[in-house]
């Protein structure tokens, strides 16, 4: 009996030795690059997952009418009729329809951060009392921000208003001086952030230098909104700016205010918006470059990068963009080797079913793949 057990014991040891040899042989074959036998690949917890590129967008959504026609008036008698024409264009250019198109463009890019300009609030009072110093108009006709947020939700997107700045707030009579309504236009610049972006230090500021039209008792205030935005563990100072469009001297002065206000900022800066200064030769554009800002637009990107401007009624069949005035800059950080930039809302396929362009501007998107 003992002898039989010894035989079993020896046989068991022999089998175990064979198993060990087979395992070692398999390991040697896998190390030698043999293709016929390969070791199983087990999950590696140390595998580094590539970080999602930081994606930012700037988009001037267009108030919907040419305000320049009003600013050129010198005879006050012409004001109510001019305002009536502008108001009709507000309605005709159909921001609710355009907002749906803009929301679809945002969904396609899914940016972490969006800077929006010309976010308008249009209100009306009937009959009007502006000329007699009555109460401001409060009946909402179009609330661009609410309309766009609803359109984003309809696309299944979850964005929050992280910061906004109120700029000009103008109320004027519409119709005639004997029978008129009041129309009130309030302008905002807004920053939206995706739900996975952490936001702090929201700021709103207006420039000291403003364009004014004394004949109309009108001051066109502009400004910027800013936040600290943390994405994938890195915090950026993001500024959404809109510089004066009608007068170069004011635009240049506002650019200097912006540069001075950010001079001591130590966080990585992302400065975006409608700067109304054409790249590469615009004075305010060159001022920003001289202050250390780097334009993210890649000259080998598809298209020209032109962002302005379509016809005021937005019904032109061929894009009429001829200049690049909407830009995304960075400072206090090195531009990554991998940068993809593109424009949106400027291709024939992106026109709405009505034939309208989503805005008179194109949106600009930058995908920054920081390591």
Written account of the structure:
The chain is an alpha+beta fold. It is 26% helix and 31% strand. Helix 6 (248-261) runs parallel beside helix 7 (283-290). It is globular and about 65 Å long.
Number of strands: 15
Strand content: 25-35%
Shape by Cα distribution: globular
The CA-CA distance between the termini, in Å, is: 70 Å
Low-confidence stretches: 1-49
Average pLDDT confidence is 87
Overall SS class: alpha+beta
| Biggest sheet overview | 7 strands, mixed
Q: What Rg do the Cα atoms give?
A: 30 Å
Listing every helix as H and every strand as E from the N terminus to the C terminus, the arrangement reads HEHHHEEHEEEEEEEHEHEEEE
Q: What helical percentage do the residues reach?
A: 25-40%
> With helices defined by DSSP (H or I, 4 residues minimum), what is the helix count?
7
List keywords for this structure.
six-stranded mixed β-sheet; 15 strands; about 25% helix; globular
Element layout with pairings:
Elements: H1 2-31, E1 54-60, H2 68-71, H3 79-92, H4 95-109, E2 113-125, E3 139-143, H5 144-154, E4 159-175, E5 180-194, E6 198-206, E7 211-213, E8 218-220, E9 223-231, E10 234-242, H6 248-261, E11 269-274, H7 283-290, E12 294-295, E13 326-331, E14 339-344, E15 363-368
Parallel strand pairs: 1-2, 10-11
Antiparallel strand pairs: 1-15, 2-3, 2-5, 4-5, 6-9, 7-8, 9-10, 11-13, 12-13, 14-15
Helix pairs in contact: 4-5, 6-7
């Amino acid at each position: 009996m003992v002898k039989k057990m010894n035989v079993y014991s020896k046989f068991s040891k022999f089998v175990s030795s064979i198993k060990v040899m087979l395992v070692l042989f398999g390991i040697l074959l896998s190390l030698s690059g043999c293709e016929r036998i390969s070791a199983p690949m087990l999950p590696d917890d140390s595998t580094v997952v590539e970080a999602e590129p930081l994606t930012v967008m700037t988009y001037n959504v267009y108030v919907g009418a040419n305000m320049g026609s009003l600013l050129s008036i010198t005879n006050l008698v012409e004001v109510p009729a001019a305002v009536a024409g502008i108001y009709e264009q507000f309605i005709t250019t159909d921001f609710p329809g355009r907002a749906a198109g803009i929301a679809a463009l945002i969904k396609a890019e899914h940016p972490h951060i969006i800077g929006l300009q010309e976010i308008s609030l249009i209100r009306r009072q009937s009959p009007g009392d502006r000329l007699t110093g009555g109460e401001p108009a409060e009946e909402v006709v179009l609330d661009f921000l609410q309309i766009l947020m609803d359109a984003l939700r309809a696309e299944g997107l979850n964005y929050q208003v992280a910061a906004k700045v109120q700029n000009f707030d103008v109320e004027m009579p519409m119709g005639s001086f004997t029978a008129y309504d009041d129309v009130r236009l309030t302008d905002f610049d807004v920053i939206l952030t995706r739900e996975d972006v952490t936001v702090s230090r929201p700021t709103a500021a207006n420039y000291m230098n403003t364009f004014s039209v004394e004949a109309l008792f009108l001051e066109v205030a502009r400004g910027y909104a800013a936040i600290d935005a943390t994405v994938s563990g890195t915090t950026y100072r993001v500024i959404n700016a809109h510089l004066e469009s009608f007068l170069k001297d004011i635009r240049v002065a506002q650019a200097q205010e912006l540069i001075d206000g950010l001079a001591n900022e130590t966080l990585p800066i992302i400065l975006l918006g409608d700067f109304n200064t054409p790249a590469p030769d615009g004075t305010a554009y060159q001022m920003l470059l001289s202050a250390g800002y780097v334009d993210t637009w890649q000259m080998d990107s598809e298209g020209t990068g032109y962002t302005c401007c379509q016809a005021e009624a937005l019904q032109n069949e061929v894009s009429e963009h001829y200049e690049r005035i909407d830009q995304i800059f960075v400072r206090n950080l090195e531009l990554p080797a991998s940068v993809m930039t593109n424009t949106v809302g400027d291709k024939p396929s992106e026109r709405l079913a009505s034939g309208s362009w989503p805005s008179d501007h194109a949106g600009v998107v930058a995908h920054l793949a920081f390591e």
